[in-house]
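To start, an entry.
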Amino acid sequence: MYVKSDVYGFGVVLLELLTGLKALDTNRPSWQQNLVEFARPSLSDKRKLKKIMDPRLEEQYPIKAAVQAAELILQCLESDPKSRPSMEKVLETLKKIDDTKDVSKDSKGSAKKKAAKRQEEHYRHQSPLQSRHGGTGNNGRAYSSAYVGSYQSTGAPRPLYFANHL
């Protein structure tokens, strides 16, 4: 039972990464406060999924990977624990998503070059005391290893998975 509840929790974390939103946020309108309830209907529709994706990704991510991640999230969030995938299956699916080479129509061409240039510029302007891979250095806040650096303009953390696929 514990393993399947861990799978549910992992699905919530994946949803947070995909949307850039907290799982529970009382500062959002009441119908959006619970991220799982709010986002679940959008995860099975590509058009709706694009609307809830983290806007800091600037639509420069493989849409096929986003759709596959959304499908995995739905599986992890199944109400019946027996219907949830095993962590081995989750890992296998994440590896397949990582291998996705399809890119969205908005990110064709030199998206990877643009992302690398933005990342390089970010590090060039970063203090040597700041961490490049999470930890402290972001104004004393600690981020998980799922985040890399921050956007210069917003100071918000950047999701690692999609940052690697720009």
Q: What stands out?
A: The longest strand covers residues 135-138. The chain has two domains: 2-107, 111-164. The helical segments are 2-19, 35-39, 46-52, 63-76, 87-98, 111-124, 160-164. Residues 102-109, 124-163 have pLDDT under 50 and may be disordered.
